Amino acid sequence: MDDRFARRTPVSRTLARRSFLAATGLAAAGAAWSATGTGKALATGSAPTTAQGFAVPIDTVAHSRTWMAWPDGTDVWGSKLPGVQANIALIARTIAQYEPVTLCANPASAPAARNACGPSVTVLDSISVDDCWMRDSGPVFRTDGAGGLDAVGTNFNGWGGKQRHAQDALVAERIAAHLEVPFTAAGFVGEGGAVETDGDGTLMATRSSLVNTNRNPDLTRAQVESALCDAYGATKVIWFNGVTGRDITDDHVDATSRFLAAASGLVQMPLATDTDAWSQDARQQYRILSTATDARGNPIAVTPLQGPDYALIRSTAPTFVAAYANYYVCNGAVISAQFGDARADAAAKATLQRLFPDRVVEQLDVDGLAAGGGGIHCVTQQEPRP
C-alpha cells in the first residue's frame, strides 16, 4: 500500500487511503491488532527463531505462483471499489498468462472474483481478507537452496493502525498453513512493501516506515535492523530517511527503489522541476544507493527510472501514485503500469525491457488502483520455487 508519489497537489497529500475508511473501521484498527496477540510479543523485542540457511530470494527467481487478494469493502474503497476490483482482475489475468495465480477472496465475494478473473486464476475462499494489499499482509517466503520453503509473517498491523485488518493480520499464517509450510512471526512489525532484498544479504528500507512508533515503539533502529536481517536471511540494511506521516505507509521503499540483482538497483526519479517531499526523498534514495556497497562490499550500480509528468497523466486525483518502479516480476514477464504520459510510459517500458531482456514487459492501465495510492507490486506476493 503506497500512497507516495502523488505530486500533482503535494500540499494536500495526507493519509489518502484513510479518507476511504469509515470512522468505525479506524476505531477498530487498534483493537483488531491487539486481538491478534502479536503486539504483546513484539513489545518485548523478541526475535524469531529462524531455520539455518533460509533467506528471502530476490523476486527474479522462478516462482511457483503469485498470491493476490480480492477487495470487497465499500467502507474502505467507497465508490472506487468497482474500478479497483477491475484492476485486480486485470493484473491477475495478466500474470496468469505466465505463472499460476491464487487469489484469496471472502466467501460472499468469491463468485464475483471468479467471474471477473476467469478460469485462469484460482480463487480461494477459505482465507478471508480485509483488502487487496497482499504484498503487505501476505507471507514473505524463504528458500534454503536445497528444496526447502518456509514463510515469515511481518505482523501486519494496518500500517500502524490506520485501517481495519483483523483478517489481513492473519493472512500470512493462513497461507502458510494452506501450503503446509513452516511459519515464523518476524521480530518486528512491518509490511512486505517496506523491505527490498537482493537475495544476497542486502536489504533496503526507509526509517520512516519501520523505525516508527506506530509499528515498533519499543525497538531501536539497531533492533529493527537485526530483526529484519534475521527474518530475511540478510546481513546489511541500506537505510533511507523516507517521509513520515504523509501517507498511510509512511513511505514504503518499493514504489521508489528496487533491487535488480546483487549490486544492482534502480530508483524512480522525479522531474527536475519537482521539489515536493517525495521528489526530495527519491533523490536522496538515489544518492544513498549510488554510494552504498552491498553485503559483500561491492558498489551498487543504480539505474534511474524516469517518472512521468503529472500534468500529462490521465488521472487528476491528488492521491494518484504514478510509480513505474512498483512493477512485479513474474516468470517470463515484468508487469508494470502506464499512466497516460505517452513519452514517459514508452521510456519506462524501454528501460524495463533493457533491464529485463529475457522477459516480456506488460504495461497495464490500473488507474483505479493508483488513484487509491497503490500499484501492481503492492497487490502481489510471489511464492518462489524451492
How large a portion of the residues is in β-strands, by DSSP E?
Answer: 15-25%
| Computed CA radius of gyration, to the nearest angstrom | 19 Å
Q: N-to-C terminal Cα separation, in Å?
A: 27 Å
State the share of residues found in helices, binned by percent: 25-40%
Summarize the structure.
This protein is α/β, with parallel strands linked by helices. The chain has a single domain, classed as 5-stranded Propeller (L-arginine/glycine Amidinotransferase, Chain A), CATH 3.75.10.
Detailed description of the structure:
There is one protein chain. This protein has 386 residues and is an alpha/beta fold. The protein has a single domain, classed as 5-stranded Propeller (L-arginine/glycine Amidinotransferase, Chain A). The chain contains 13 helices and 16 strands. The protein has helices spanning 23-36, 38-43, 74-77, 81-95, 110-117, 134-137, 158-161, 168-179, 207-210, 221-232, 277-291, 342-355, 367-371; strands spanning 63-69, 101-104, 122-124, 140-143, 149-153, 183-185, 195-197, 202-206, 236-240, 257-261, 264-269, 301-306, 328-330, 333-337, 360-364, 381-384. A four-stranded mixed sheet has the order 3-2-1-16, covered by helices on one side. A three-stranded mixed sheet has the order 4-5-6, with helices on one face. Strand 11, helix 11 and strand 12 form a beta-alpha-beta unit. The longest helix has 15 residues, at 81-95. InterPro entries: Peptidyl-Arg-deiminase_porph (IPR007466), TAT_signal (IPR006311). This is Agmatine deiminase family protein. Keywords: Hydrolase, Signal. It holds the Pfam family PAD_porph. Residues 1-34 form the signal peptide.
